[in-house]
Design goal:
Structural class: alpha/beta
Number of domains: 2
Strand content: 25-35%
CATH architecture of the largest domain: 3-Layer(aba) Sandwich
Bound molecules: ribulose-5-phosphate
């Protein structure tokens, strides 16, 4: 079974999971190739939800194409669940996210939700976070100062360029990748993140940081993880 099939399988499992929620609510929806599989699987059942809130322009576009209603988060009080992928997840449900550059909106929507349902294939499960370079969204003029602060934590920092992101985002190669919020992203390699909550707080306190892609406070509550044997549901 290839990775696309694993993503499709977990997308379908997530559809079955959210259809157990009482009808007539609003659902939070993440960003990335696994989240896309979930959106496609849920599309025939979209009327179970009165609307969605989306974590990126790319997701909004996909939801609208399928005929989902996309609501402004400011018009929504709370969400029963938020469904999204991850770049890495540890055994306690702490995650690295932001490989697709949508980390800030993802964290905002996750914070509105009662449950974070993380969907991924088993290649994303790690004992300790940090093999995947940690994305940090910043205000562009703070690049120098924030990079120096992140290097003090032991990381090797690189500015994400448009060419290093997914082609569907359609940005000019070799220019900085620009997020939906007008921010830039620093990718921090070489961190061994033994205490995700502590590091999340520490990095969030650096002036110029918009959001760090460590999801420790907003960790996963349910993990649906696929491998060639099927999909496992883990309550965290
Ligand atoms: C986007 C994200 C994604 O959830 C993460 O990058 C995983 O993506 P994929 O499902 O394509 O592997 O955080 O900002």
């Amino acid at each position: 079974m290839n990775q696309d099939q694993l993503k499709q399988m977990v997308g379908e499992a997530a559809r079955d999971e959210v259809l157990k929620l009482p009808a007539g609510q609003v659902l939070g929806i993440g960003t990335g190739s696994t989240a896309n599989c979930f959106i496609d699987a849920l599309a025939p059942f979209k009327d179970h939800f009165v609307g969605t809130v989306s974590s990126s322009n790319a997701t909004t576009e996909r939801l609208l194409k399928h005929g989902f209603k996309v609501l402004d988060p400011n018009d929504v009080q709370g969400l029963p669940a938020y469904v999204d992928g991850a770049d890495e997840i540890d055994p306690l449900g702490h995650m690295i996210k932001g490989g697709g550059g949508a980390l800030t909106r993802e964290k905002i929507i996750a914070s509105m939700a009662k449950q974070f349902i993380c969907i991924c294939d088993s290649s994303k499960q790690v004992p300790v976070l940090g093999n995947f370079a940690l994305p940090v969204e910043i205000i562009p003029l703070s690049q120098g100062v924030v990079s120096r602060e992140l290097e003090k934590l032991g990381g090797k920092v690189s500015l994400r360029l448009a060419k290093s992101t997914r082609a569907d985002l359609n940005q000019t190669p070799s220019e900085p990748f620009v997020t939906d919020n007008g921010g830039w992203i620093l990718d921090v390699a070489g961190l061994k993140i033994a205490d995700p909550l502590k590091m999340e707080v520490q990095i969030n306190q650096i002036a110029g940081v918009i959001t760090v892609g460590l999801f420790a406070k907003e960790k996963a509550n349910i993990l649906l993880v696929s491998n060639s044997a099927g999909v496992e549901r883990i309550a965290l």
